[in-house]
Design goal:
Layout (H helix, E strand, L loop, with lengths): L2 H19 L10 E4 L1 H6 L2 H38 L5 H54 L4 E4 L18 H12 L27
Parallel strand pairs: 1-2
Helix pairs in contact: 1-4, 3-4, 4-5
Length: about 210
């Protein structure tokens, strides 16, 4: 289970236990709701805003990596075109330069990817904790005994969802109203799940 899924599972487990603990032992009614928790988190206005900020933060590095990748491609084409006219020493020298640049690019891509994933995870976890609190209040207000996460394909166990059982949109709306963060402009990129690969990598990693 990845970290976002684990975070969601812990939050939802706590909510289910809390709701169950508040249900009178004499009650025979079990009111169940389901939620696609990661979807709820990533579709909030706050997460969409923070995701857009994250893209802008890494845009200069993406441009730098793309420039270096283009330079390497140009050097490879140049070496291939001029190979027959170069001495063995010149070919070896140019090949070493290309190899060094490829090694630097790979290292920079790995560092960039690691930094981006950490920032993305932190962004998700920050909003997920607050969405979990809203979900807790919502479940209590609507007398749900159990709330199940039906949005994670790795852990999904819900086989049927009746009308009105899915509270995902209700939680998104409730959180947006509480946070006061306006909806992002229509031109803003849609936020992916936290495990999405950083689009800054332009050269294959080995």
């Amino acid at each position: 289970m990845n970290r976002p899924a684990a975070c969601a599972a812990v939050l939802l487990s706590g909510l289910a236990l809390a709701a169950a603990a508040q249900t009178p032992s004499t009650s025979t009614t079990t009111k169940v709701a389901v939620i696609a928790f990661q979807t709820a988190v990533t579709q909030t206005n706050e997460f969409q805003r923070d995701f857009a900020d994250l893209q802008r933060k890494y845009e200069p590095k993406r441009t730098e990596l793309k420039t270096l990748n283009d330079q390497i491609d140009a050097l490879k084409k140049q070496l291939q075109t001029q190979a027959d006219t170069l001495s063995d020493a010149d070919r070896e020298s140019r090949a070493r330069v290309i190899n060094d640049k490829e090694r630097d690019l790979q290292r920079d891509q790995q560092d960039d990817q690691s930094d981006y994933q950490q920032d993305m995870q932190q962004t998700f976890n920050t909003v997920a904790t607050k969405v979990g609190a809203v979900l807790d209040d919502y479940a209590k207000q609507h007398n749900y005994t159990v709330v199940l996460d039906a949005g994670n394909p790795e852990t999904q166990v819900v086989l049927y969802v009746g009308p009105g059982t899915d509270v995902t949109k209700a939680i998104i709306d409730a959180y947006n109203a509480k946070s006061g963060v306006p909806a992002p402009p229509a031109s803003a990129p849609a936020a992916p799940r936290p495990s999405t690969t950083h689009p800054g990598a332009t050269h294959p990693q080995h």
